[in-house]
Amino acid sequence: MTRGLSLVAGLFFAVSLPASEGNAYVDAVLEALADKGLLTGQEVHDIKLQARQAQRRQQADRQPTDADGGEPGLIRQVARSVNAARQPESGFPNFKVWGRLQPRYTYVQSDGGREGTSSFTFRRARIGLKGYMADKMPFRYQYEAANELPGLSNAANLLDAWVGFEHLRDSLGDIIVGQQFIPGYTRAPQLSASVERKFSEFLYPGAAGRARGITLRRGDNGLPETTSQGLFGNRLLYGIGLFNGPDLSLNNDNNEMLFAATVGWRPTGQSVWPDEYAIKKRGFNYGLNAAYAHSRDTTTLDTGLQAALGNQVELDNDWYSLFADIEYEHWFGWASWTRFDSDARGGVVIDSKSVTGSSLSSSAWAIGGSRTFPVSGNPDLQGWALGFQLQHVDNEHPSRTRFMRALTGSAPNELARGMNRGYAYHAMVTFILNRNTRILNEFTHYNGEGGSVDHDALISQIQIDF
Predict the structure, then answer these.
(1) Does 274 sit behind a cis peptide bond, omega within 30 degrees of 0 on the bond before it?
(2) For residues 251 and 242, what is the distance between their CA atoms, to the nearest angstrom?
(3) Which of the listed residues 176, 259, 399, 406 has the most CB atoms within 10 Å of its CB?
(4) CB-side exposure of 231: number of CA atoms within 13 Å?
(5) pLDDT at 319 over 90
(6) 140/335 Cα distance (integer angstroms)
(7) What CA–CA distance (Å, rounded) separates 139 from 116?
(8) Coil vs helix vs strand at 194
């Protein structure tokens, strides 16, 4: 909407110019909008092409204005071109190929008998397709290749594969079927404030927060499965779903499934901002979210690990999580907490300290914030930002140990860097070159219980979206 209005306003002043001068003026306006990130290069090309064709038709018909006399024909044609280039969500057909590249350099010092890292890897190399298969039937497909050690290879490669049904959007909500985010996954900050997922996310069920199943959602809660509005003026948001087991996301041969539900409250009626970094000022907005999940699945990462340790057990799993975000002008803040409890149903389990017991209980929390500093007059830099984050983890689940450190590859020695208990201190500096390119730099100090896993990690990462 903003792009369309900006373009039409700019073209209005070019109406009185001759054709050649008007074309140059239109080109200048389009290029200026592209420089400000309001239009992409492909959209500028398409709009110019359609505008020229419209002008030629107009000159051939010798019809300088529309029949209603209210708006010059060229302007209306270009405005329609803008709208066509930015199809509404409910339009059909509407398909888009998109992707994200994140090449990175990671440095971890060799110290205290720990093998260090100095490596170039890919945090992510994603490509996806999203759009509408038919009216009120969106879909999303996303594939990822990465160098990190995933929770499950196939689920980490095929991230999203779902189709939605918006026929009940204004009453119950959107229905989503396929591999998708589990409701309650505390995804924000979402784009680039922190280069690694939070500890609280690693404790939540799913492979990278996703599983295969069916959900009913109303309100986006910062996740891509729905763009619907919540109840009471988008203040009350909710989601409920039934999935295959908690972290394998495969065929559920044992007939035991995962149930998940979430509810959110946003007093301002505004959804969470899709980017934690804001070049333009935004209004005050905040929200609270709570979630619960339960599973009696007998085939999980933890039961598999217990079997390898000699314990054939089944686990009752419960997850509890809270999430909050707040934003104002160029500031963005977040906080999250997750608790993961597993009951062995009378059996014996071995925790991350190699201590036997009848249950496992893990928790993690994170709090952080970022501040964006816009830069004017520099075509190569739109702004830069500072971010800070503090995390704490108390992990008893052996399957999660490997995630509590900098992700640099799949070398076996990295398992020794797993931090089951302790704090992580993050400092981030991000340079926003344009709307599609960022350079992320993060320094993290891991302070483990007893000092046995204390170490620093430095990551510098380029993020390119298309």
Answers:
(1) no
(2) 13
(3) 176
(4) 11
(5) yes
(6) 28
(7) 42
(8) coil
Strand partners, 77: none
Residue 189 is given by DSSP the state S
Q: What is the per-residue pLDDT for 50?
A: 64
Tokens 């909008």 correspond to what residue?
Answer: 33
Q: What is the pLDDT of residues 418-434, one digit of tens each?
A: 678 889 999 999 999 99
Higher-confidence residue of 327 and 300: namely 327
- The torsion defined by the Cα of 405, 411, 415 and 419, in degrees rounded to 10, comes to -10
List, in order, residues 6 or more apart from 164 with CB less than 8 Å away: 137, 138, 139, 174, 175, 176, 177, 225, 226
How far, in Å, CA of 371 to CA of 432, rounded? 12
pLDDT in tens, 373-416: 999 888 888 999 999 999 999 999 887 776 666 655 444 444 44
Spatial separation of the C-alpha atoms in residues 202 and 152, rounded to whole Å: 13
Give the whole-angstrom CA distance, residue 466 versus residue 437: 9
The DSSP line for 58-122 is HHHHT--B-TTSSSBHHHHHHHHHHHHHT--TT-SSEEEEEEEEEEEEEEE--BTTB--EEEEEE
**Phi, psi dihedral angles at 52 (to 5 degrees):** -65, -40
Q: Which two tokens stand for residue 4?
A: 């369309």
**Most confident region among 2-16, 82-96, 216-230 by mean pLDDT:** 216-230
Beta bridge partners of 258: 243, 295
Alpha-carbon gap, residue 449 to 431, rounded angstroms: 34
The tokens describing 21, both together, are 């001068």
The token pair at 415 is 């398992």
State if pTM tops 0.85: no
Measure Cα distances from 331 to 56, 272, 368 in Å.
48, 13, 11
CB 459 within 8 A of CB 194: no
For residue 75, which phi and psi values (nearest 5 degrees)? -65, -45
Please check whether residue 370 is in contact with residue 376, taking contact to mean a CB–CB distance below 8 angstroms. Answer: no
State which H helix or E strand residue 211 sits in.
Answer: strand 210-218
Q: What own/partner pairs with CB < 8 Å and gap ≥ 24 does 371-379 have?
A: 371/330, 371/331, 372/277, 372/278, 372/279, 372/330, 372/332, 372/432, 373/330, 374/279, 374/280, 374/330, 379/35
Q: Give the closest residue to 248 by CA, choosing from 294, 215, 210.
A: 210
Rounded to whole angstroms, how far apart are CA atoms 398 and 359? 12
At 374, the amino acid letter reads P
